[in-house]
Write a structure and sequence with these properties.
With 275 residues, this protein is an alpha/beta fold. Helices cover 44% and strands 11% of the residues. The chain has helices at 2-22, 26-35, 68-79, 89-94, 96-104, 124-142, 158-168, 187-197, 211-226, 234-239, and strands at 45-46, 55-61, 84-87, 108-111, 148-149, 171-173, 203-207, 230-231. The strands form 2 sheets. Strands 2, 3, 4, 7 and 8 form a 5-stranded parallel beta sheet that branches. The longest helix has 21 residues, at 2-22. The protein is globular, with a radius of gyration of 19 Å. Bound molecules: zinc ion (ZN). The site of zinc ion has 6 residues, from loops.
Length: 275
């Protein structure tokens, strides 16, 4: 009886969702086009990934930093943790040896633009230059081109995702855990927020340019390990994807999570300057 009811509820929810999808108002359609991954773009955008197992991806943005990134690399090595770095091209050009070290030690390097502008407000040509220059800088530092991109501030339109994916082959990586470490709330708060929000399949955002973030990491890693989490790179996490809903995003989404694609609106720079 319970199983039957559950099935009925699922069916009712599905019908409701499909019903909404069939006849959206023009306004709803416009918003959906702008902010949501659509069924035409499977597997391009990820906030989190549905996985069978306690796997998560730690991501560090906006580096490399001359002093903090090497410190973080030491910590990661001590914990045998593989992470993903979304680097700024300008910083790669300044410290290619740090990016080379990160890649050599098994971490993944992703493109986070040349100078951290807001893609949502830029021409295709300017975005193309930002991505191309950074792609080249990463290739020259590590010998490998990146396959992941994270737009600064998480700001990107659905149309931009599409052509960037077509032209560069990038998956667009957002996040589902955001400790807001760029506001420098102190290591204890950064750690507490990450521990509270992280679930299997989570993509955790933080920045290796803030001292408090690096200070938070030893105990954050210890406690995540104590909870049984295993750390992989973002591409490894995506390769582990299994069918089924990713866990609900903490961001308000308005639609049920149904695939590994991003179900939630793209964070706007005004409300979410993370990334
Ligand atoms: Zn950033």
């Amino acid at each position: 009886m319970f199983a039957y009811r559950l099935l009925f509820c699922c069916f009712a929810a599905l019908s409701f969702t499909l019903g909404l999808g069939a006849e959206p108002s023009p306004a709803t359609r416009a918003i959906a086009r702008e902010t949501r991954a659509t069924p035409e773009e499977p597997g391009i955008t990820f906030n989190s990934v549905h996985v069978d197992g306690p796997y998560i991806a730690m991501t560090f943005d906006d580096g490399p930093s001359a002093t903090l990134t090497p410190k973080l690399l030491d910590l990661l090595a001590a914990h045998h943790i593989k992470a993903t770095f979304f680097v700024i091209g300008e910083n790669v050009a300044e410290h290619p040896e740090i990016v080379a070290r990160a890649a050599r030690e098994g971490h993944e390097i992703g493109n986070h633009s040349w100078s951290h502008p807001n893609f949502g407000k830029m021409s295709d040509e300017s975005i193309r230059r930002q991505l191309r220059q950074t792609d080249d800088a990463i290739k020259s530092a590590t010998g490998k081109r990146p396959t992941l991109m994270r737009p600064p501030y998480g700001s990107i339109t659905t149309r931009q995702k599409r052509w960037i994916h077509d032209e560069f082959g990038y998956n667009v990586i957002l996040w589902d855990v955001d400790p807001n470490d760029w506001k420098r709330p102190g290591p204890a708060v950064v750690r507490a927020r990450i521990l509270k929000e992280t679930r299997p399949g989570s993509i955790v955002l933080s920045h290796d340019i803030h001292p408090g973030t690096i200070e938070a990491m030893p105990s954050t890693f210890d406690e995540l390990e104590a909870k049984g989490f295993k750390f992989v790179t973002v591409s490894e996490l995506i390769r582990m994807a299994t069918a089924g809903p990713s866990h609900p995003s903490p961001q308000p989404s308005g639609v049920p999570a149904s695939t590994t694609r991003s179900p939630s609106p793209t964070p706007s720079p005004a409300s979410s300057p993370g990334g």
